[in-house]
Amino acid sequence: MTASDVLALLVLAGLTAYTVLGGADFGAGLWDLTRNRRQRDLVVRAMGPVWEANHVWLIFVLIALFSGFPGGFAVLSRSLTGPLSIALLGIVLRGAAFAFRQYGAPHGGPPVRGTALWGRIFAVSSLITPFAFGAAAGGITGGTLRADGSAGLLRPFLAPLPLVSGLLAVAACGFIAAVYLTTDAYRSGEPELVVRLRARALASGAAAGALALLALPLLPDAFADRLAWPAVAVSVVSGALALELMRRGWFVLARVAAAGAPAGLLCGWALALYPWALPGETVISPAPPATAGLIVGVLTAGLLLVVPSYVFMIRVLRADAD
Amino acid sequence: MLDDLTAAREQMAFSLSFHIIFAVLGVGMPWLMLWAEWRGLRTGDTHWTALARRWSKAVAVLFAVGAVSGTVLSVEFGLLWPEFMARFGSAFGISFTLESFAFFLEAIFLALYLYGWGRLSPRAHLLCGVPVAVSGVASAGFVTTANAWMNGPVGLVRGPDGELISTEPLGPFLAPTTGPQVTHMVLAAFLCTGLAVAAVYATAMLRDPAKRDGYHRRGFAAGAVMGLSLAVPQALVGDWATRAVAEYQPAKFAAMEGVEHTEDGVPFSLGPWEIPNLLSLLLKFDPDARISGLDVVPAADRPPVAITHLSFQVMIGIGVALIALAAYTAWAWYRDRRRGAHPADRRGLLIAMAVAGPAPFVALIAGWIVTEVGRQPWIVYRVMRTPEALTSQTGLETYLYVTIAVYLALSVALVAILRRIAAGPRPTTERTLEGSAA
Q: What ipTM does this complex have?
């Protein structure tokens, strides 16, 4: 295993963390589209402390990608310009809108004008971003993209596979978010919300499963042959387990299982893709070995510092969530 | 119609400028916040604690906008300049990798700081602010090393025919302008933050004389001391940075100073004035020394002179004015202290400080224009030209307009909310609100 392979695994680890943690924050936006005020308050309470740290995983992935695989990063930037721009727009609007909505009335009283509108923008942009990322992944898989970006800005993504994978990403984010929020509602003693959110978790989980099944026959044969089936099996089992645990009301365990479903799918996909940036078109050209080795060292040392800090933060801030 | 290269450059300039305004506040504000909280803990002075809480809310909103606008930049590098990233992404990879971890720690400990007021012991809470303050400075430093490398690329591994094979990973830390550029940037962050904070309290005290109380005076003083005390050091570091440019990027230096032709005994121009032989004296300590003009490089390699020169002059002018303001404030403070008065009772000083608030931000942007426009036509100095780095996608003008529209909307909302944070009731009376508003 070369330094580049380790680096690719670290990128995948970061991508998985972003999907599971950042994805839950995007999914929360789906459940913010409601008239139920208590549910919207729960979303703010649950996301407020953690979304920025979760968002850094995306920056981690981007930086590890362009440092470790500069050629691949350039190819992906060129061929995914359309969906990446849309995702970016969603990221900016989502983050800023959430902060504006949260601090619109910093000392109580009526909020600053426009705060309600930012609340809506938060919810809608939370859906745009995972859809765009999902469509980008579908576009890569479909094999119609060209390394020089000549396949078009948006046209390659208006095909069945990218559209299904975009929807799958939204459903998966909604599922993880609903599972996490159910636990939070349970912890803060809001039985009504537990019932509401549990129903939403079951529905979105079923939708995500159905979309994943729908995507399978759309995969090009060459890609399907390379799919890492053990990882996909983890995804299927975790998803089914999470649904069952939710149904029985074992929320804390359901959290772990729910994270396994998208994580398994993502890993199965990424392992099939590697070492290609665009399958059959361009490989993900790595940085010089000396640089790759040093980046692996820095990333490992950094993660040893960051992961315990993150866990400490979660423990402290959850301590009196009731 | 803008051509794609111009549109891409304008978009980069616009998104960097937008980001950097929030980034500098994100670097500086945590230090003020920590200072205020520490003073409150040490002395039991509730005004300081109240200031720390108020500032922490502003930091929360500013950090969110800074974080997302920073993400935009890291994606834009690839979207707009894929050739540049393909060839040099790993050259400054270590800088950005380190920056991402600094950013991680900043986000994690800022969350602990913002949401931990009631959940951590006062001491533990204060300690959580330390990584926020340190990693903010570290992020700014790491990112600036990447830019310094673009201005003075080192560690290039070339083949027998001079073609570029690869790059050494630690180049950004060894680039000749890294030292002065990083120092200049970090000081600029503190200067901007200090003067912006002082201006907020100066304005409040001017509008409503009843507000000339302990709370506003402390906020004013903390910002003024942080900002003004750095005016002179920043000028000295600026001098260091300018000498580095003169040595390693003579064309940029010539554009900054507006020197067309290589000559002996070059005058120094500031605005409409020209002082004979001063530039030679300043740079080489010899009034008759030879200064390289733009003609040291072929016409195709020269940066745009007018904008580089004007921006440099704006930065120098603001720097000189801030030194004068610092001197006047120090004198006023010394006089008033002996009489038992407070400088905040001087209306003139308050007006000057209120006006001075935006000035360092103008200087900051002007300074970056000097750095970036002065490096043109190169994206990596003498290695890669900017047009070579451009994406093959077209229609970049649309991206520019969308970016401008979105950022304008964000600015309007942000200003409205920051004003509300500044104008609300004192945070001492709302101890429990943190939890419920969270």
A: 0.90
